Amino acid sequence: MVRAALSVPVAEGLSLDGSAVSLWGSDRHGGADAVVDLGAAYMRQIGGWRLSAEGRYHLFPGSSGQGYGEIGAGAGFLIGPASIDINGNYAPRQSAVGGDNLYLSASASAGVPGTPLTVSARIGRSSGNARDPLRAARLRPDGAYWDYGIGVDYLKGRWSAGVRYADSSIDTSRTRHAGATLIGRLGFSL
């Protein structure tokens, strides 16, 4: 997978964002070779709290009728080198996702003192109404499910690297893109 992202600040706390990720003929998304996410995000720091809101549209070039929009909000709190966050994203009823989808998550991360390492953990739950079960399987391949993961990231100047373990409660015997995964990444920020 190859990913590129760009965020442009337009006012205090407000940014316009875009990213593209390679999919290489994804069956789940109508054979699309990529997903392009476009949106706006607002973030405000109030004391130790970080509050955020966003709106985003997911486009799937090369595949018709697959795009869908969602809104999200989150809150995070800093405790020394640690951060605890809760987030929610909601895709209202749309034909491209066969109904609606609600994704709630909680995560925590902490810098390891005296090192450029950060450890993190997260858990999430996806649920919603399925008016068209075949299309709803794009976001919920096995109906409502839990996902979870842990990771370690290394940051040095503009370079970053990380490794993550991710898994879910999705039944691997009925779904092709499910099961435990180890994900490595390497990044450079401008």
Descriptive account of the structure:
It is a single chain. With 190 residues, the protein is mainly β. It has a single domain (3-188), classed as Porin. The chain has one helix and eleven strands. The protein has one helix spanning 133-136; strands at 3-11, 14-26, 32-46, 49-59, 68-79, 82-94, 99-111, 117-127, 145-156, 159-168, 181-188. The chain has an eleven-stranded antiparallel β-sheet. It is globular and about 50 Å long. It starts with a strand and ends with a strand. The model has no long low-confidence stretch (mean pLDDT 89).
Q: What are the defining features of this structure?
A:
11 strands, mainly beta, globular, Porin, single chain, 1 helix
Helical coverage, percent range: under 10%
Biggest sheet: strands side by side, in what order? 1-2-3-4-5-6-7-8-9-10-11
The CATH top-level class label:
Mainly Beta
Q: Helices and strands, in N-to-C order?
A: EEEEEEEEHEEE
What is the first-to-last residue Cα distance? 20 Å
Total separate domains = 1
How much is the radius of gyration in Å? Answer: 17 Å
Count the helices. How many?
1
CATH topology: Porin
Task: Tell me the overall shape.
Answer: globular
Number of strands: 11
What's the oligomerization state?
single chain
Mean pLDDT rating: 89
Major sheet characteristics: 11 strands, antiparallel
| Poorly predicted spans | none
Q: Which class best fits the helix and strand makeup?
A: mainly beta
Output the CATH homologous superfamily.
Answer: Porin
